[in-house]
Amino acid sequence: MIYLKLLNIVKEVLPDFNGGSSSDLIKAEKILKTHQKIHSEFSLNDIENFLSFYKENGNTYTLLFQDENLSKILNREYFKIDPNHNRIFPHIMDITPVFRTFSEEPVKHFIQINIRHHDWENLRIFYKNYFPVISLAAKDFLIDQLTQKNNLIRSVIPQRDCYYYLTDQYRHGINPYFYALQSDIDAAYFNEEIMGINNTISDHQNTEVYLKVFLGRVLMALGHFDAYTEELRGLLKNNSKIGAEWAGKEMVFHPELTEESFRQRRQEMQHTGNYNRPHMNRKPRSIVSEWIIVAIYYLIILGIFASLYHISEKLFAGVLASELIIFLFANKRMNKKYGKRPEAKDHSWLGKNKKSGYKLMQLQLYTITIGGFIMIFAGYLCSWYEYPLFGVVFTIIGPYFIMREMDKIKKKRSKQ
C-alpha cells in the first residue's frame, strides 16, 4: 500500500513523525516531494492523499499499522499469517468503517492471492484473527468466491471423466479448511450449498470403486463444516465416516494426477476386475432419501390398519384400543430406547417424524408379541381341556425350556 511506503520514507528522515502535528505534516510534505523529484516512485497526487489521510485521522491508526501481519497485508504481500503477532484486538475500537474502507483493496488482494494458492488454512487463520478489519464489501467478495467454488464441486461430481480435477484446479473440494472457513464466516448462509454438495454425491455414488475414492475424499472434507442445523451436522458426520471407508480402500489416493495418469489408473482397475464393483458399505443419505424412509414407515403402519379394517371393523377397533392401552404403559420405554439412537439428537421436523414412525413401528411389534403370548396361553388352556395329558407334560417341561432360552439370551447380551 502506497500509504505505508510513504510513511516509511518519512520516518527515515523523521523517526518521531506525529501524524497529528501540523508542523510534522509540513515537514513530511517537503520530504516526500523531494524524494518524488529524485526517484519518481509515486505521484504528487499520492502525496496529497497521504497528507489528507493524516489531516483527517491523525494518529488514530498508528497502533494498527504496527501489527506485523496487517502491515504485510496492506503492503500486498503473500505470507503465512502468524496469530502470535496479532495486535489488533486490544485496539479494536480504533477499527472504524473508515479504516475498513481504507484497507479494503489490500484485504481483497490478500483473499485473492490465498485463493489462487489454494491456501485455505492460511485464509481461515486470517479470517479468525482479522475479521474486524474486513469491510462488508470485502466479506461479500469472499462469500461470492466461496459460492463459486462450491458450484464448481457440484458441477464436477456428475462428470466422472473429470474427477482428477479434484487433485488439481478443484482441489479445494477435498480440503477440510475450505469447508471449515465457510462455517466460520456464516454457517447459516452456506448450509444449503453444503447440503447440495452432499446430496449430489449421494445421487452419483453408484460408480466405479476407483472413482468412489474421490467422492470419499470430498465427504471426509465436508465433515469439517460445522453446519447451522443439527440435521445437516449429523448427516455430514455420518457421511464423513462412510467417505473414509470409500477413500481408504482399493488404492492410495494420489494428490497429484494428470488426465493421462487418471485414465491409465481407471483402465488398470477395469483389467483387475474392480470396475463397477458394488460397494458393500453404507451409503450416504440425502435429505430426500431420509424422507422416503420415514414415509415407508408410515405406509407400512397404514397398510396394517387398513388390512385389519378390511377384515373386520370390530377387530380393527379391538386392536386400536389395545394399542392405545399398550402405548400408555410402553411410551416411556420407547422414548428411552429411541434416546440411545444417534438420530435422537435431531430435533428438526424430519427428526420428529422419524421418532413418531419409530414408536409406531415399536407399538406394532409390542402388539404382535402380546397377541402371540395370548394365543399361546389360550392354546395352553385348550390343551388342558381337550388333551389333559399333553397339558400336564407342557406344564412340567415348558418352564424348563423357557428358562433355558432366557439364559442363552442373557449370556449373548453380556458378551456384547
Which residue ranges are poorly predicted, with pLDDT under 50 across at least 5 consecutive positions?
273-283
User: What is the strand content?
Assistant: under 5%
What string, H for helix and E for strand, traces the elements in order?
HHHHHHHHHHHHHHHHH
Q: What would you call the shape?
A: elongated
What oligomeric state do the depicted chains represent? single chain
Q: Radius of gyration over alpha carbons?
A: 34 Å
Terminal-residue CA separation: 66 Å
Number of helices: 17
The overall average pLDDT, rounded, is 81
Share of helix, binned: over 70%
The main sheet comes to: none
Number of E-state strands: 0
Fold and architecture overview:
This protein is mostly helical. The chain has 17 helices and no strands. Helix 11 runs antiparallel to helix 12. It is elongated, with a radius of gyration of 34 Å. The two termini are 66 Å apart.
